[in-house]
Specification:
Leucine-rich repeat, LRR (right-handed beta-alpha superhelix); disordered N terminus; TILB protein; leucine-rich repeat; LRR_dom_sf; repeat
């Protein structure tokens, strides 16, 4: 049976009642985003033919009704963690939703096997958590000009290249724990010198020794002739 969700924040969605549990809509913290997957026939056709076939089946009215029902544009706080994006159509639908989050301020995308969201822009996002993904560079993060708190723990960021792109943002807190770049020499000094507005790194406030510029030394081989 399809019922209205009891929580006001989910008033635009429907609720599928599953027997033998007492979970209610207002208890959901990270709902999974799912479209009905392609049928066996559609999978058989595959590729462009499947896309064309699917496009003919959905009318403009249905698309508009679906857009009104989702209402992602007015979402201010959203948790889309643990989506288990195992198929291409799931990834595409997930990114389609991210493109529509024009007013989101707090967003959690933990453990989604994400590698590149550079085409996504989140103009109002102040807090972003993308822990436990597969990002390899700061360049692969979404455009987040208003970011204040960014968590990137347990990704695969090798170097600090690209971190200066956040220099002109109001970024105050950054978490890079369990990334390879954490083992770089003078790691904290390099981060704070690149981000002068930063107040906290990996849960530790800015310390006096973090304020000094990185120690740049030139080593020369000297041959002394006696």
């Amino acid at each position: 049976a399809f019922l209205k969700l009891p929580s006001e924040s989910f008033k635009y969605l429907g609720w599928c009642d599953i027997e033998e549990h007492d979970v209610r809509g207002n208890q959901l913290r990270c709902p999974r985003v799912r479209e009905a997957g392609p049928s066996e026939e559609e999978l058989f056709f595959g590729g462009e033919e499947y896309t064309l076939k699917k496009g003919k089946q959905v009318t403009d009215t249905e698309k508009w009704q679906k857009k009104l029902q989702e209402n992602w544009e007015n979402c201010a706080e959203l948790n889309l963690s643990f989506q288990d994006l195992g198929d291409l159509y799931q990834v595409e639908n997930f990114k389609r939703i991210l493109h529509r989050l024009i007013r989101v301020e707090k967003l959690w995308l933990v453990d989604n096997s994400l590698t590149d969201l550079s085409a996504i822009r989140l103009p109002r996002c102040r807090e972003l958590n993308v822990n436990k993904n597969h990002f390899r560079s700061f360049k692969h993060l979404p455009k987040i000009p208003q970011i204040q708190h960014l968590s990137l723990a347990e990704n695969n960021i090798m170097t600090l290249s690209g971190i200066s792109d956040f220099r002109h943002t109001p970024l105050e807190s950054l978490i890079l724990k369990r990334n390879p770049c954490e083992f770089q020499e003078r790691y904290r000094q390099l981060v704070f010198s690149s981000l002068p507005n930063l107040k906290m790194l990996d849960g530790i406030p800015k310390l006096p020794e973090d304020c000094s510029p990185p120690d740049i030394r030139c080593f020369f081989k000297v041959c002394t002739i006696l």
